Amino acid sequence: MSFQEKRAWVYAVVTLIVPAAYFVTVLGQEPPAEYAAPMLIAIGAGIAANILGVIGSAILAPEHVGLNDERDKSIDQYGKRAGYGALAIGAVAALALTLARFEHFWIANTLYLGFVLDGLTTSVVKIVAYRRGF
C-alpha cells in the first residue's frame, strides 16, 4: 500500500467518525440545537486527527514519504474532481435552504454535510483507483 493510499484511508476513516459523532450529538437534540461550538470542535478534531494520521503513516513507512509518481498525481486529481461534485451538490442544497428562508441551523449543517461528502467521496474514489486502477 502506497503512502498516498494510506493517507486516503486515514482521511476516509476520520471523515466517517468525526462527523458521525457530531451529527449524533447535534441532531439528537431538538432543532434548532446549539451547533456552532460542536461544529467547530468537530472541524478542529477532524483536522487534528488527519494530521496525526499522516504523521503516524509517515513514521510507519518513512521510505515512502514524499514519493509521488505520475499515477499518484493522476489519482489525486481524479479523486478531487469526484469530490467537487459532492461539494457542489451540498452548496446548491444550502443555497436552496437559504432562499427558502430556513434557519441557520439547517443551512450550516447542510454546508458541513457537503464538505463531509466531499471528503468521503474523494477518499473512496482514490482508494478504489489505487485498488482497481482508473
Task: For this entry, give a set of tags.
134 residues, mainly alpha, 81% helix, flat
How does this model look, in words?
The structure is a single chain. By secondary structure, the chain is mainly alpha-helical. Helices cover 81% and strands 0% of the residues. It has helices spanning 3-27, 36-60, 70-99, 104-132. 24% of the residues are buried. The model has no long low-confidence stretch (mean pLDDT 89).
* Distance N to C terminus: 16 Å
Largest sheet: none
User: Quick one: overall form?
Assistant: flat
Beta content: under 5%
Order of helices and strands: HHHH
* Fraction of residues in helix: over 70%
Spans with pLDDT under 50 lasting ≥5 residues?
none
Helical/strand content category: mainly alpha
Number of strands: 0
Number of helices: 4
Any idea what the radius of gyration is? 17 Å
Mean pLDDT: 89
